[in-house]
């Protein structure tokens, strides 16, 4: 998918998706590029950095491997689910203040696994049918 095509689709459809996920009062910043470079996960198609305190999220999408508008919609829906679950991130943030580095490492491993499983289950419940494991 071309960057311009993705930006046009996002501009036309993001308000509808925000309403679907009850995120109308959130400010969403969506950055679209050819690909997103994440050293620890080079195949990732998108990322979301939500802040429930400020009701704002930064979503980065790499369009190199996105084929259709439907794929783009599924990816954006996945990232919006991270916004919906962002209050749980506050628990993570509290734990990050711990001095016990070993406990932190174990917590983060299970936390991120649990969040992704929850997002995947919500996708299935909502009938989104996302098949790729490359979005987080």
Description of the structure:
By secondary structure, the protein is an alpha+beta fold. The protein has four helices and three strands; from the N terminus they run H-E-E-E-H-H-H. The longest helix has 25 residues. Strand 2 and strand 3 form a beta hairpin.
Choose one word for the global shape: globular
Largest sheet: 3 strands, mixed
Secondary-structure element string: HEEEHHH
Strand percentage lies at 5-15%
Mean pLDDT across residues:
83
Topology:
Blueprint: H1 3-20, E1 27-33, E2 46-51, E3 56-62, H2 69-84, H3 86-95, H4 101-125
Helix pairs in contact: 1-2, 2-4
Summarize the structure.
The protein has helices at 3-20, 69-84, 86-95, 101-125; strands at 27-33, 46-51, 56-62. The protein is α+β, with helices and mostly antiparallel strands and 136 residues long.
Label this structure with key terms:
alpha+beta, 4 helices, 136 residues, three-stranded mixed beta sheet, globular, 51% helix
